[in-house]
Amino acid sequence: MSASKRVLVGLAVGAGVLGLAAPAFADYPAPVTPQGPSVLPATQNAPAPAVRAATQAPTSTLPFTGADVAELTVIGGLAIAGGAVLVRSGRRRTQAAN
Fold first, then answer.
1. What is residue 59's DSSP assignment?
2. Rounded to two decimals, what is the model's pTM?
3. Pairwise CA distance, residues 11 & 20, whole Å
């Protein structure tokens, strides 16, 4: 690939990246503060709520907070395999041209 083609491809990629990033700099309207409920007077005579003891025994398992690791591993493997195919095909074209 000639130097001028490389420069043009670089400029096209740079313009595409900047074009995709343009919405990040959009001017959004200022947020509206919501009107909350009115506050009750401080002299309210309500009985104190009854407090109950916890009756459920704690579980011995941890909560699920992560992602599906098997699915991400398959996606990563496919990405590596696709990259290897692209590199190999590029090398074959270079060797065939010489």
1. P
2. 0.33
3. 14
